[in-house]
Amino acid sequence: MPSSLSKTKNSKTAVKLVKDLLKTQKGETVAITCDNESDLDFVQAVENAAVSLDARPLVLKNFAPPYVGRAAEPYLPLDSLIGAVKESDVWIELNRKWLLYSRVYEEAMDRKRTRYMCLVGMSVDMANRCIGEVDVPKLLEFQRVLQRVTRESRSMHYTTPGGTDISFENDPKRPVLVEGDVNGPGEYMLLGQVDWAPVEETINGTIVFDGSVNPPDELGLLRGPVKMEIRNGRVKRCFGGPQAKVYEKWLRSLNDENMFILAHLSYGCNPGAKLTGNVLEDERIFGVLEWGLGNQSKTFAALDTKAISHSDGITLRPTLQANDGQVIIKDGKYVHSDLVEAAQILTRKKNR
User: Fold this and answer.
1) pLDDT per residue over 18-52, tens digit each?
2) HSE value, Cβ hemisphere, 13 Å, CA-based, for 271
3) Crossing angle of helices 78-86/103-111, nearest 10°?
4) Tell me, what DSSP letter sits at residue 304?
5) Do both 263 and 163 map to the same domain?
6) How many CB atoms lie under 10 A from the CB of residue 35?
7) In terms of domains, do 105 and 248 share one?
8) What is the secondary structure of 129-179 as a DSSP string?
9) Range of the structural domain that residue 26 is part of
10) Of 130, 157, 182, the domain-final residue
11) For the domain that residue 57 is a member of, what is the CATH number?
């Protein structure tokens, strides 16, 4: 049973999420979705936080389906979820098997009323480290500088000790997203991530996931590499060992060729994140790069790829160089002249 001290910490973190990040106001409706695999202690803390702000929370709990996104729909009380979520002012997704990219998500976003934050599989411990203990203004400031540096970089190339060697072009007309910076209705992710969609047909080389992959559930924390040959933004084959075979088998089992298209690329920059096997946290580890495959959010203003599901994988200790010769990350450390001091401040606070 949590101590009174830990309950107080959890409550403060939940209030920080609901009030400071999502800017919840008195009288607003707050839909909190979860499933039987969620951390229900944190669900309760978020509900209590909404009540403390005189908002009106509604907790919607379903049984966790075997899939995520559109593939989960046959296992969900879909119409009930859609009706409740799309009429809410705030939607906090704490499902372990996410509703992101399902019809619940699509109809809520099309309504253009709801401030949605995807916190899939968020636990009390993760919330305290990645929200409660983080200096949000300083982290968002760092993310905005990283956003600018990326916007100014047309061509990019990166490698990792694990074998990643990939090049691509960026389209200056496509947005670079600062996650966690909530400003009006729309889709938001946990802070500590900056992401964008490179020009898909220019992505060529090899990507090696060596941190974690999720889904499928059989992977998570990786014991061996998942290597992928990429041609024109599409996975042509997976290789590298047993876990690579598991991944390719899962991708093919969905019977959707769009699952093999690269959807986005993301920097991790949350000083509280650590490698756990939960993709929500893993893709925010300071200095990692993460690729998403499959369904692509409209917020990337790219191909708007529709796929039955989505999967994310982590590449560790990347070195990323832009077309102007400037190195943004070297061996998992932010070394660009506009980033290095702020990165040191953020990580120094983490290590105290």
Assistant:
1) 999 999 999 999 999 999 999 999 999 999 999 99
2) 22
3) 20
4) -
5) yes
6) 23
7) no
8) IIIITS-HHHHHHHHHHHHHHHHT-SEEEEE-TTS-EEEEE--TTS--EET
9) 4-130
10) 130
11) 3.40.1830.10
What is this structure's pTM?
Answer: 0.92
Do both 89 and 142 map to the same domain? Answer: no
Tokens of 251: 């991708």
Residue range 282-286: mean pLDDT, rounded: 97
Q: How many CB atoms are closer than 10 A to CB 232? A: 12
Tell me, what DSSP letter sits at residue 300? G
Please check whether residues 10 and 146 belong to one and the same domain.
no
Q: Is the peptide bond before 57 cis (omega within 30 degrees of 0)?
A: no
Q: Number of helices (H) and strands (E) in the chain: give both, helices first.
A: 9, 20
Domains contained in the chain, number: 2
And the tokens for 41?
């202690």
pLDDT for position 352: 46
- Residues 352 and 337: their CA atoms lie apart, in Å, by 24
- Regarding whether 210 and 83 lie in a shared domain, the answer is no
Same domain, 102 and 149: no
Residues 230, 270: one domain? Answer: yes
For 210-268, the pLDDT digits (tens) are: 999 999 999 999 999 999 999 999 999 999 999 999 999 999 999 999 999 999 999 99
